Amino acid sequence: MQSKLRLAIVDDHEAIRFGFLHAATSAGHEVAFSAASLGELRGKVSKQNCDIAVLDLSLADGSNVTANVGALVAEGIPVIIFSIADKQNVVRAALRAGAAGLVAKSNSMDALFSAINEVAAGGNIDNIHTAAAIDADLEFKEANLSAREREVLSLYASGLAQKQVANYLGISQHTVKEHIVRVRRKYDGAGRPIENKTDWVRRALEDGLIDDGAL
């Protein structure tokens, strides 16, 4: 028998959160956290009180999917993306940040909870949407950026100055400069050079580290 899971749902549509609560209760699980943004859960959700988080890709607060997934994964919480999945670059960004996979909102709640059970058992989600995003991710694999380099690139390409990036991440400006140099070298080595600020934005968009709607 499937053990009771403590779940979190982060989606800015109240109807989705309500439907998830009903489906979880019917399946014998507990919705420990329900919120319109990850910011509402900061400092509250952890591995000790949440088994799996279900997260939408694009939230009304404009938050970055890489940061959202990364924050939950850093707490040891598996993440499932539940989204309309209309932007492949953003889906890839979520998977690269550590999401276990994607369930499209065009699927039923039954499909979502089947994926939740799979992840709870230690597996990853094996479906056409997740596979398509992974198969299309060849360019990013060539760049091979670390998690910190992805953070620096996304912030810098979004328009922050190096000092602002340093303050945001709590690191020195010198460290930010070192990351920027390494990122440029990795893209150069992948045949995708960065020669100016426009190129920084282009590479970040290509690899789903920023959303063109936020520019």
If you had to describe this structure to a student in words, what would you say it looks like?
- The chain is of the alpha/beta class.
- The chain folds into 2 domains: 6-136, Response regulator (Rossmann fold, 3-Layer(aba) Sandwich); 139-214, Arc Repressor Mutant, subunit A, CATH 1.10.10.
- Helix content is 48%, strand content 11%.
- The protein has a 5-stranded parallel sheet with strand order 2-1-3-4-5, sandwiched between helices.
- Helix 2 links the parallel strand 3 and strand 4.
- The protein is elongated and about 55 Å long.
Outline:
Helices cover 48% and strands 11% of the residues. With 215 residues, it is α/β, with parallel strands linked by helices.
Strand-helix topology:
Layout: E1 6-10, H1 14-26, E2 30-35, E3 52-55, H2 65-74, E4 79-83, H3 88-96, E5 101-104, H4 109-120, H5 128-135, H6 138-143, H7 147-157, H8 162-169, H9 173-189, H10 197-206
Parallel strand pairs: 1-2, 1-3, 3-4, 4-5
Helix pairs in contact: 2-3, 7-9, 7-10, 8-9
Strand content: 5-15%
Indicate the structural class.
alpha/beta
Extended strand count: 5
How many domains? The number is: 2
| First-residue to last-residue Cα separation | 48 Å
Give the helix proportion (percent range): 40-55%
Show unreliable segments: none
The CATH architecture designation of the largest domain is 3-Layer(aba) Sandwich
CATH level-3 fold name of the largest domain: Rossmann fold
Strand line-up across the major sheet: 2-1-3-4-5
* Elements, N to C (H/E): EHEEHEHEHHHHHHH
Q: At the fourth CATH level, what is the homologous superfamily of the largest domain?
A: Response regulator
CATH class of the largest domain: Alpha Beta
Radius of gyration: 18 Å
Query: What would the average pLDDT be, to the nearest integer?
Result: 86
Instruction: Please tally the helical runs, counting DSSP H or I stretches of 4 or more residues.
Output: 10
- Biggest β-sheet strands, sense, barrel: 5 strands, parallel
